[in-house]
Amino acid sequence: MESILQKNPGSYMVLKVEGSCRKFYELGIIPGSKITIISKNNQGPILIRVGNSKIAIGRGMARSIFVE
Questions:
Q1: Which residues form the Ferrous iron transporter FeoA-like domain (predicted)?
Q2: What is the per-residue pLDDT across 42-55, written as a single tens digit (0 to 9) for each?
Q3: How many whole angstroms separate alpha carbon 41 and alpha carbon 61?
Q4: CA-CA distances (angstroms) from residue 5 to 8, 50, 65?
Q5: Could you give the percent of the chain with pLDDT greater than 70?
Q6: Distance in angstroms (rounded) separating the CA atoms of residues 9 and 4
């Protein structure tokens, strides 16, 4: 199990989220949900798709989302 910070662009299933669960829930990032990493670089935010929404999340938040 790795965080999305460690993954390449592609689609993944969320296994676990750590930290502010309410914020993740509001964004639709919950265990069992599908997310797609659209783009990321070595610095700056990571662009993901959750459902029909595109969301830019910071690297700190990305460390808390574990996928497979």
A1: 2-68
A2: 889 999 999 999 99
A3: 15
A4: 8, 16, 8
A5: 100
A6: 9
**Span 2-67: which CATH code?**
2.30.30.90
Question: What is the domain partition of the chain in residue ranges?
Answer: 2-67
20 contacts 27 by C-beta, under 8 angstroms: no
Helices in 1-44 by DSSP H: which ranges?
21-27
Report the C-alpha gap between 18 and 30 in whole angstroms.
Answer: 10
Sort residue 19 into left (φ over 0), alpha (ψ -120 to 50) or beta: left
The C-alpha atoms of residue 11 and residue 38 are separated, in whole angstroms, by 9
